[in-house]
């Protein structure tokens, strides 16, 4: 509810700021009106971020409630283009009612050193959790947490990142991953090695 209240606060702040701009330039004609509109529309991305956080938080709460009802843990699911911090949590399982470990990252520095109850990990986080028990693993099929972990490492090795994450961060993450000896196909390891050598990844393909 605090996040929802924050969205209302943002709208009120932008409203007041727009009125101040218009009042200060009441005789400015069209330029003053446009300045006021620009001030008001700054609320759009701010409210969008709050709304995204609320949705992710609600999904995590729902998953935790189901996991508790079933008496099982929760496995962390990260998007393919998740940041180097969230990607490090992919495939980890928290016990029923437990938290995820602190300080994980494929990057150089952890975001913080506090245990993580559930997503969202940061304001723009789009990770989620789903209930999981090792008893659900099927014979001769890669368990879901391990599959998530493998895809997270592949994401780092292939440079599948959003534009908002600097290339240098992703290249450094790939370098660290290669040093750890990941269980990835030789072609994927070679791709990552070339990116580390060149200091850049090719653009992420559309639809990733």
Can you describe this structure?
52% of the residues lie in helices and 6% in strands. With 208 residues, the protein is mainly α. The protein has one domain. It has a three-stranded antiparallel β-sheet, sandwiched between helices. The longest helix has 28 residues. The mean pLDDT is 82.
Brief sketch in words of this structure:
The chain is mainly alpha-helical and 208 residues long. The chain has seven helices and three strands.
Question: Which key features would you list for this structure?
Answer:
3-stranded antiparallel sheet; about 210 residues; mainly alpha; about 50% helix
Overall mean confidence score, pLDDT: 82
Termini separation comes to 33 Å
The geometry reads as flat
Q: Segments where pLDDT lies below 50 for 5+ residues?
A: none
Largest sheet: 3 strands, antiparallel
What percent of the residues sit in helical stretches (DSSP H or I)?
Answer: 40-55%
Query: Strands of the biggest beta sheet: in what spatial order?
Result: 2-1-3
Share of β-strand residues: 5-15%
Number of domains: 1
Give the number of DSSP strands.
3
Order of helices and strands: HHHEHEEHHH
Q: What is the number of helices?
A: 7
* Oligomer designation: single chain
Give me the secondary-structure category: mainly alpha
Whole-number radius of gyration? 22 Å
């Amino acid at each position: 509810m605090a996040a929802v209240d924050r969205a209302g606060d943002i709208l009120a702040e932008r409203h007041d700021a727009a009125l101040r701009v218009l009042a200060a330039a009441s005789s400015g004609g069209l330029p003053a009106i446009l300045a006021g509109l620009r001030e008001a529309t700054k609320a759009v991305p701010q409210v969008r971020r709050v709304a995204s956080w609320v949705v992710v938080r609600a999904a995590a709460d729902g998953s935790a409630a189901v996991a508790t009802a079933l008496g099982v843990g929760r496995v962390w699911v990260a998007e393919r283009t998740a940041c180097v911090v969230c990607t490090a949590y992919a495939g980890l399982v928290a016990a029923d009612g437990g938290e995820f470990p602190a300080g994980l990252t494929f990057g150089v520095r952890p975001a913080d050193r506090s245990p993580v109850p559930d997503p969202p990990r940061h304001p723009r986080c789009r990770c989620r959790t789903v209930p999981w028990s090792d008893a659900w693993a099927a014979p001769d099929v890669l368990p879901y947490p391990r599959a998530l972990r493998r895809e997270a490492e592949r994401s780092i090795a292939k440079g599948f990142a959003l534009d908002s994450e600097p290339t240098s961060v992703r290249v450094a993450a790939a370098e660290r991953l290669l040093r750890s000896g990941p269980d990835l196909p030789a072609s994927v390891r070679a791709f990552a090695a070339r990116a580390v050598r060149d200091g850049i990844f090719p653009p992420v393909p559309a639809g990733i």
